[in-house]
Design a protein that fits this description.
The chain is 34% helix and 17% strand. By secondary structure, it is of the alpha/beta class. It has two domains: 1-26 and 65-70 and 226-299, GMP Synthetase, Chain A, domain 3, CATH 3.30.300; 75-217, CBS-domain (Roll), CATH 3.10.580. Helix 8 (179-189) links the parallel strand 4 (173-174) and strand 5 (193-198). It starts with a strand and ends in a 6-residue tail after the last strand. Pfam families: BON, CBS.
Length: 299
């Protein structure tokens, strides 16, 4: 269920902000006087580092955060098992045809016993003499000639077999790796896909598109018993506490699945992150945004 939220234009008084910082009531009595707190108390209040706690809010080991209940997907859950592969002797023209017809961006190169020996990707076929995309010779390359580099470049642009154009050093994955590690590896190495090995043998391939398909299949878990307001409040406050050091200036209440979030944040991005955290809290149906940006001195 997607939560709806609206931004309130109701102003937050200094007394209300200080009360939230100190963990006092969310609003003063409408008919009572507003007492100004001593400066030392107000100063300590804005530096208060603990979240406001409610009766029964202490979390024990039997009450883990809801995110911990989310199953951790592994490579085996999302990888493509029917992999198009080639041998080291496969002609480059056939490899190009397979990439185009299968609409894939790379093919692993395997030996006769199924061991991975390399990979040929679209980038390996970009510089080819057949289509006139080989690197043009320049005067400085002639002056600083590296015969080995020149020979290797010639093989990659003119070679006719997979072994001539493949990348022999391949970053690989295993079936038991979690998707978080795969995403980190792809991002760090700037890769679009990873061959999956069992020992030295190829058993599949995992790509960015596999991660996107996993996201498309994701459905939020259904609860036999809807979370109580107290459970939702604890969950959301834990999320906010992990998000921002300004959590002590954030006051949250939940009533029948409707969250009211008020307080002071440093940036609009911080406010948006808190709203996203609320939207991802199971059970929250609507959100009232009463957060304001902290005023900064320009002097």
């Amino acid at each position: 269920m997607t939560a709806n939220y609206r931004r309130s234009t109701e102003p937050l008084s200094p007394h209300l902000l200080l009360s939230m910082a100190l963990g006092q009531s969310s609003a003063p009595d409408a008919d009572g006087p507003i007492a100004l707190l001593p400066w030392r108390v107000r100063r300590d209040g804005f530096g208060y580092s603990r979240l406001r706690r409610y009766p029964g809010q202490d979390r024990g080991p039997q009450d883990p955060p809801m995110d911990e209940a989310t199953p951790r997907l592994t490579v085996a859950d999302v990888m493509t098992r029917d992999v198009v592969s080639v041998s080291a002797a496969t002609p480059v023209s056939e490899i190009a045809g397979a990439l185009a017809s299968k609409r894939i961006s790379a093919v692993p190169v395997v030996s006769t016993d199924g061991a991975l020996v390399g990979i040929v990707s679209e980038s390996d076929l970009m510089r080819r003499t057949e289509i006139g995309t080989q690197r043009r010779p320049s005067w400085w390359r002639k002056v600083l000639a590296d015969m080995e580099a020149e020979a290797a470049d010639y093989i990659r642009t003119h070679g006719r077999k997979a072994r001539h154009v493949m990348t022999p050093r391949v970053v690989t994955a295993t079936e038991d790796m979690v998707l978080a590690d795969i995403a980190d590896l792809m991002e760090k190495q700037r890769l679009k896909r990873l061959p999956v090995l069992r020992g030295s043998h190829l058993v599949g391939i995992v790509s960015r598109s596999d991660l996107v398909r996993a996201l498309a299949r994701y459905r939020a878990p259904l609860f036999a018993d809807p979370p109580t307001d107290g459970t939702m409040l604890r969950d959301l406050m834990d999320r906010v506490k992990a998000l921002t050091p300004s959590h002590c200036l954030i006051n949250i209440s939940v009533h029948r699945g409707n969250a009211d979030i008020a307080g002071v944040v440093d940036t609009a991005t911080e406010r948006e992150a808190i709203l996203v955290a609320a939207e991802n809290t199971p059970g929250i149906r609507s959100i009232q945004d009463r957060m304001i940006l902290r005023c900064r001195s320009t002097s």
